[in-house]
Design brief:
Length: 391
Amino acid sequence: MKKIKVIYWSPFISKIATVKAVLDSAISLKKYSNDLFKPEILNVFGEFNDYKKKNLFIRDLSKISISNFLSDKGYFSSRLSFIIIAIYSFFPLLNFLKKEKPDYLIIHLITIVPLLINYFFKIDTKIILRISGLPKITGLRKFMWKFLLSKIFFITCPTKQTKQYLIDNKIINKNKIFLLSDPILNINKSRMKLKENFPKNYGNYIFSAGRLTKQKNFSFLIKSFSIISKKFKNLNLIIAGDGEEYLKLISIIKKYKLEEKVKLIGYTKNVFHYMKNSYCFIMPSLWEDPGFVLVEAIFSRCPVISSNCPNGPQEILSRGKGGYLFQSNDVNSLIKIFDNFVYERNNRTNELKWKKNTAFKNIKKFTLFNHYMNLSKLILINDSVKNSEKS
């Protein structure tokens, strides 16, 4: 049987969760398909260089790397970098698609490039748009998507709410929108990481993780912790991640005189052992879709407290049955929920155990194998429908 060639397009300038999802999606196709699929990830400008040795299916789109000339520090720098990448990669991608003629191109980040090529040029490759994160459909984006997505093969969404959000906005035929959970958990690797030695003693601590950006809302968490720490003096706060709000967060920590209580530890390759050893995990995000670190915290059997932001946390935590949900960006709500959690934790109530078990059942859909099964079905079923329509 002829191998189905699947190419991934996901140029990035900062190591966000989407990058791991792209790698694991390709790994799942290679691992479980019994050679039915031949996945490759395009290394557009050198962004995947660090992953080449471990993943032999990463392919250079260009011989020239410009990754050292791009920056994600600040709004204008990151936007300028996106424009440079788009201009730099347009014709190399067009030439690649015309020459190689892959069966599918799954696109994640800086999608404007492949979408424009797909709309204005005749190519044999079917384009699959994989939504990563909650899309903000502004007037301009809605206008552009309405015609650019008209020629797309189909779209996948990580949560039911996002799928419904796209359907309600009537951007594309609803029959082209499908649910596909992200491949967040590589079970064997995750278990190994849980067994690794914990690197440092931070005492009794609350843990949180993610890019230091406005979306993750760590400034809100630090302000809330300044109140929590007065009541629970033995608790510290550890935040893992890098990003453009680092200096802002340092300033807030100093403002509330929390230098001894709050630590920004930067990017870490293993969040699992931090989660496993923590008092609890708090995710204060303004939006998530679905919330990679939330899934990882649940897998670590860590009690989770999350904002009820759109769209992932409410689904993953079964609207509070699988964890503790507070009103997004509401300090009083977080304090009230945290007090409730502490009571249930200290009194060893069945409620906390039941919540953890409920959440654990919900994250089974985020494994690599489940992702492979659903992605392969979507490709094969939609392809057979298209072929039957042509005949």
